[in-house]
Write a sequence for this structure.
């Protein structure tokens, strides 16, 4: 199983859960399975072209998937995936 | 600015680079990261503010009051009152920080017409970041705001944000 850490803004689609367990041999497959249980999460992560949104980082353990093999990044049992929105704010 | 016990020491060159960045981006807000060791800044990363590229759905990450303000503006005007760091650039900076053996010391952004203190939006999103920061192995950063409210005298202040509140901490500019 893969542990996925869910950031505060996305917890509305995970029923308030901050961590969920899901299966998947790649990031893409894991997100498909996550979306089966938590509809709406895929649209929050991917843009209309199916790419990870420009303000979202997806880390496998401590590495951003953009510097691995993107959505094809392989996952193995025990991996930790963190979904992290980049910093924002404003006065 | 000098302080006997600064929470963060910033070399004069980087201090000036941050002000230059804020002025270049105005009227949009700028944003970036500072890294180093033991409370001393050694590296500066400009990050692109991608706010004007966000779709209406993506803007929903902002809190209610800020979201309403943003929705009243044209996309090209929205970065005047908010920023969204480009996630790829932020991750690249993190990677460089690790490669150099540094730690993240601070995030910074500018307020082009309001004072150098965190807005409610700044605090809310900083607390979001706090909720997963430790699990990513990142030390707690300060949040620096560069105010251009007085164009001739940019004001730079640093804050530690915790428990949904901000506390100003002293900064030192070294080599001035």
């Amino acid at each position: 199983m893969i542990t996925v850490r869910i950031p505060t803004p996305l917890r509305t689609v995970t029923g308030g859960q901050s961590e969920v367990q899901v299966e998947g041999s790649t990031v893409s497959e894991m997100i498909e399975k996550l979306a089966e249980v938590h509809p709406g999460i895929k649209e929050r992560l991917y843009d209309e072209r199916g790419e990870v949104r420009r303000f979202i980082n997806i880390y496998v353990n401590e590495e951003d998937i953009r510097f691995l093999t993107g959505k094809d990044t392989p996952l193995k049992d025990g991996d930790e995936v963190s979904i992290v929105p980049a910093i924002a704010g404003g006065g | 600015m000098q302080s006997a016990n600064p929470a963060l020491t910033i070399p004069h060159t980087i201090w000036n680079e941050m002000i230059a960045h804020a002025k270049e981006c105005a009227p949009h807000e700028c944003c970036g990261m500072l890294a180093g060791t033991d409370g001393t800044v050694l590296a500066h990363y400009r990050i692109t503010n991608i706010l004007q590229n966000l779709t209406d759905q993506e803007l929903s990450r902002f809190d209610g009051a800020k979201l309403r303000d943003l929705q009243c503006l044209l996309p090209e005007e929205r970065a005047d009152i908010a920023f969204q760091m480009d996630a790829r650039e932020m991750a690249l900076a993190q990677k460089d920080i690790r490669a150099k053996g540094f730690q993240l010391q601070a995030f910074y952004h500018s307020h082009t017409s309001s004072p150098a203190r965190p807005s409610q939006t700044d605090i809310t999103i900083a607390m979001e970041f706090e909720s997963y920061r430790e699990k990513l192995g990142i030390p707690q950063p300060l949040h620096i705001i560069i105010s251009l409210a007085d164009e001739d005298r940019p004001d730079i202040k640093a804050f530690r944000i915790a428990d949904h509140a901000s506390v100003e901490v002293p900064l030192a500019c070294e080599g001035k």
User: Anything to note?
Assistant: The first helix of chain B runs from residue 12 to 25. The two ends of chain B are 9 Å apart (CA to CA).
